[in-house]
Design goal:
It contains 17 helices and 16 strands. By secondary structure, it is of the alpha/beta class. The protein folds into two domains: 203 residues, Glycogen Phosphorylase B (Rossmann fold, 3-Layer(aba) Sandwich); 179 residues, Rossmann fold (3-Layer(aba) Sandwich). The chain has an eight-stranded mixed β-sheet, sandwiched between helices. Strands 13-12-11-14-15-16 form a six-stranded parallel β-sheet, with helices on both faces. A two-stranded antiparallel ribbon has the order 5-6. The longest helix has 25 residues.
Length: 389
C-alpha cells in the first residue's frame, strides 16, 4: 500500500530517535510511505529520501499557521499525478493541524483517513482550559467524525469518543504501549536527588511541562499540605514552559519557595526517576503516558490524578494512589500515609513495577504490527463504506 503520513513530530526528521525508527519500520510494510512534517523555518530541515520506500518532507513554513498550506503543496507536487492522488491511505498524527490537513486531503481526493489520538483533546477538561483549547477541541470533534479509523492510546479516550458517538468509539483501535523496561532500568545513574538536595529527607518528583495541562499549582498546594506534617519534604519539578514565573510566584505566595526546585528538561531524566521515592502527577486531562510509565518502571510510589494510563496500571492503595484532579486532601493523605508507613510505600513501589511490566509490551514489533493492521483495516472499512453508498 501507498501511505501519506502527516505529523508535527520533528523527531521524525532526526536520526536515531524513536519517532524516526518508527517511520522506518512503517516503510518496511508499505510500497511507498511519504511523511509530511509540519515544522517551521525556525527548525529548518531538508527533504530526505531515506530509502526507496520512505520520503520525508518538512514544510519549513514561515509560521505554524502556514504549515498546512505548505503541506498541501508538498502533497500535490509529490503525490498527485496521472490525474489522481497516488496513495491508498492518509494518516494524521493528531486531530488538530495534522488532522485538518489529513481531512482536507482525504475529502478532496476521496481517500480513507486514519487519525491518531495520543492526547484527549476532545475531553471537557481540555476544552475548559482556555478559549483556544475550546476551539481545538471543536476542531478535533469535527475531524474524528469524518475519519474512517482512529488509533487511541487509552480507554479514557474511547469513553470520550462514545459520548460523541458510539459508532465513532467502535471504530477506534487502542494501540499497545511499548517500553523497553529492561533498557531503561540499565541506564546508568547520573543524578542522585537525595545527594543533590540533602536538605530534604523526602523528595517528591514531578516531570511535566510548565503549562496548564500539568496543573502544577495543585502539586505545590499538595506539597504545602505534606510539609505541614513533614517539614523536611521537597518537590522537584523537571520541565519547561510558559508558566515558570507564575509557578515560582505561587511557590513564594504559599511559603513553599524553599521547598520547590525547578529543573529544566534533561537527557538524564531516567536518573531522576530512579533516585526518587515518590512521583506526583497532577494533570487535568490525558496527555502522553511516558512519565507514569517511567515512574512505575523505576519503582516510584505513584500518586496521580486518574488520567492517561494511570487507571490501567494503578490499583488504588495497592500499586499507587488515584485521585480526582481537585482532591487536594486525598493527594496529601496518600503521600503522608506512605511517609508514615514505609512498609506500605515499599509495597506500593513493588506493585507499581510489577504492574507496568504486565501492561507494557516489551517487543516493539508488536506496535509495528498493530500499525500495519490498523492501516489495512481502515482501508478495508472505507472500501466497504464506499460500496454501501
Amino acid at each position: 500500500m501507498n501511505v501519506l503520513l502527516i505529523t508535527n513530530d520533528l523527531n521524525v526528521l532526526r536520526e536515531n530517535t524513536p519517532a524516526r525508527a518508527a517511520v522506518e519500520h512503517y516503510a518496511t510494510f508499505t510500497k511507498h510511505l511519504v511523511v509530511v512534517v509540519l515544522n517551521t523555518s525556525r527548525d529548518r530541515y531538508r527533504a530526505q529520501k531515506v530509502s526507496e520506500s520512505l520520503l520525508l518532507l518538512p514544510t519549513n513554513a514561515y509560521a505554524s499557521i502556514f504549515a498546512p498550506l505548505k503541506a498541501y503543496q508538498h502533497i500535490i507536487h509529490q503525490l498527485y499525478f496521472q490525474g489522481r492522488l497516488q496513495v491508498d491511505l492518509v494518516v494524521a498524527g493528531d486531530p488538530l493541524l495534522a488532522g485538518f490537513v489529513g481531512w482536507f486531503t482525504s475529502a478532496r481526493f476521496h481517500r480513507p483517513l486514519l487519525i491518531e489520538l495520543r492526547m484527549n483533546v476532545l475531553s471537557r477538561n481540555y476544552a475548559s482550559q482556555s478559549f483556544a483549547h475550546t476551539l481545538r477541541s471543536m476542531v478535533g470533534r469535527f475531524l474524528v467524525r469524518r475519519s474512517h479509523g482512529l488509533i487511541i492510546y487509552s480507554e479514557g479516550i474511547r469513553a470520550t469518543l462514545a459520548d460523541i458517538s458510539t459508532s465513532i468509539a467502535d471504530r477506534a483501535m487502542r494501540a499497545p504501549h511499548f517500553m523497553d523496561i529492561e533498557a531503561f532500568q540499565k541506564e546508568p545513574l547520573h543524578v542522585d536527588l537525595a545527594a543533590k538536595y540533602p536538605q530534604f529527607k523526602t523528595i517528591l518528583l514531578t516531570v511535566a511541562p510548565l503549562e496548564k495541562v500539568s496543573n502544577l499549582q495543585l502539586a505545590i498546594k499538595v506539597l504545602a499540605g505534606v510539609v505541614a506534617l513533614y517539614p523536611d519534604t521537597g518537590l522537584v519539578i523537571v520541565g519547561e514552559g510558559s508558566l515558570y514565573r507564575k509557578l515560582k510566584a505561587y511557590a513564594r505566595k504559599t511559603g513553599m519557595a524553599e521547598h520547590v526546585i525547578f529543573e529544566p528538561k534533561t537527557d538524564n531524566i531516567s536518573s531522576y526517576y530512579k533516585s526518587a521515592r515518590f512521583f506526583l502527577m497532577t494533570a487535568l486531562y490525558e496527555g502522553y503516558d511516558d512519565p507514569l510509565a517511567y515512574a512505575a518502571a523505576a519503582s516510584c510510589a505513584i500518586v496521580s490524578t486518574a488520567v492517561g494510563i494511570a487507571p490501567a496500571i494503578i490499583e488504588d492503595g495497592i500499586s499507587g494512589f488515584l485521585c480526582e484532579p481537585h482532591d487536594t486532601a486525598k493527594l496529601v493523605t496518600s503521600i503522608t500515609t506512605m511517609i508514615r508507613k514505609p512498609s506500605l510505600c515499599d509495597s506500593v513501589r513493588l506493585n507499581a513495577n510489577l504492574s507496568i511490566q504486565k501492561y507494557m509490551d516489551s517487543d516493539e514489533k508488536t506496535y509495528i504490527e498493530f500499525s500495519r493492521q490498523a492501516w489495512e483495516q481502515t482501508i478495508k472499512e472505507a472500501s466497504k463504506e464506499a460500496e454501501s453508498v
